[in-house]
Amino acid sequence: MFRTITFLLVSSLIALSIASENPPQSVIKEDGARINSPIRDALFDSVIIPDVLDDFTPIFSLDLSYPKAHKPVSLGNRLTPHAVRHQPIYEFHPLTTTTITINPLTTTTLPSPSPSSPSLPKNKTYTLLLTDPDAKSRIHPIWSEMCHWIVTNITNPANIIPKPPSPSPSPAPALLESYLPPTPPPGTGYHRYVFVLLEGDAATAGNVSAPRERKHWGYGEVRRGVRDWAGEFGLKVVGANFFYARGKK
Q1: How far apart are CA 221 and CA 217, in angstroms?
Q2: Which pick of 30, 91, 146, 204 has the fewest CB atoms within 10 Å?
Q3: CA-CA distance, 228 to 74, in Å (whole number)?
Q4: pLDDT tens digit string along 91-147?
């Protein structure tokens, strides 16, 4: 019995040592430092990477909430279709990095929200969107991806509810695709509803156009969507958040 317990303790210590040396879902920088991101980890755990997005290092924390229902979006929390009926409000903050030296050979860089929200670069503009990769269901994604919302020309990162574009040019955010409330069909299980923040050059912001249709983002094939649309307009993924929702049985 004593030998068995000793063996189990030694095995546990070895496993912990290996885990600490190889943290899950970390990014290895060119200088060898590891960047651990809870955002990235959650996207991997939910298989949003690679189903919706290619691997990336988040540089913004993306905060969203549904004010009428008093419900936040929190990296995979579960919300009801009733709670998400109305357009959410958003806020995003640059992630700063803190470098920690564990030993002379190991340096870890940890991203964390900036204590303040500095002005965004004047030469950049941002687009926020919502997509469903699980339409009609995760097992049978025959309508995937489904476009639910696109806000473009964002230059201010805090608490803005965008309005439809006006005939005259305006620096304010504009709805490129109106908000389509998530309504997962009954019996199709939980759907992943993914918010993605994209960064682009301000000079080309006016060239971004809505998809030809919501289903498959107009690309006509299963699993086509955000990745294709962002690539078409040269937009870079810089942040993401998501929630789960399912229809009533």
Answers
A1: 9
A2: 30
A3: 25
A4: 999 987 544 444 444 444 444 555 444 567 788 999 999 999 999 999 999 999 999
Report the distance separating Cα 108 and Cα 28, nearest Å. Answer: 10
Tally of structural domains, the chain: 1
The CATH number of whichever domain residue 123 belongs to comes to 3.90.280.10
Supply the range of the domain harboring residue 208.
43-95+113-245
